[in-house]
Amino acid sequence: MTPRLLETLDRAALEREGLHTEAERLTVMWAALLSPFTGDPLLIALDRLGLHTHNKYPLRARVIDALREAKPAPLTDADLRRLADVLPLPILLRVRAARFAEAPSAPDLRRADVLGVLDGPCPACSTAATSPVSACPPGRRWARSSTPPARPRPAVSFTAAKTRGPGSHTRSTPRFERL
Fold it and tell me: Which of 122, 126, 127, 118 is nearest to 141 (CA)?
């Protein structure tokens, strides 16, 4: 292993501490380890390692996306919004910080949180071209979903039981069951 790769792994080990799941931490570490590879050599290495998923988490796809999108250039607000559509920003920004020492993740993570794209892409907003209302103002309101909350489940369910009535007719009687 080269000294540069060892430094990258050391930075990745520090950066992974802020992630919540084991799969996200593994993504950062695998991306750091495989950072010297690009294109076909990266895919060959992933195939040889048999790296595809971890507990149904698309580890291979996340590693490929993180290595493809992690660039040393400064990120603008538009870049953060675009990258939030590609993969989770906490992973991408930590891989970027591990690969490039001059790109710390903390300022970009704070800015992504202010933009409302840290936990995922912002919902589709109407634009001035499609609506008389102006486009969504920047900020946390973008992260709010426009879908209404789910209705609570009833405590009982109703089923109809067919019983034989007088003669050849059938009738339904309600039956309530506790859920």
Answer: 122
Report the distance separating Cα 132 and Cα 125, nearest Å: 13
Cut 0.85: pTM above it: no
pLDDT tens profile 128-175 = 444 444 445 555 544 444 555 555 555 555 555 555 555 555 555 555
Of 47, 49, 48, 41, give the one whose Cα is nearest residue 67.
41
Q: HEC string of 55-82?
A: CCECHHHHHHHHHHHCCCCCCCHHHHHH
Distance CA 177, CA 179 (A): 6
- 111-141 as b/e: b if 16+ CB within 10 A: bbeebbbbeebbeeeeeeeeeeeeebeeeee
Q: Which residues contact 125 (CB under 8 A, 6 or more apart)?
A: 135, 136, 142
Segment holding 174, helix H or strand E? strand 170-178
8 Å CB contact between 171 and 163: yes
As a whole number of angstroms, the distance between CA 9 and CA 101 comes to: 11
Confirm if 80 and 117 have CB atoms less than 8 A apart.
Answer: yes
Return left, alpha or beta for 50; rule: phi > 0 is left, psi -120 to 50 is alpha, else beta.
left
Nearest to 61 by CA among 99, 84, 36, 30: 30
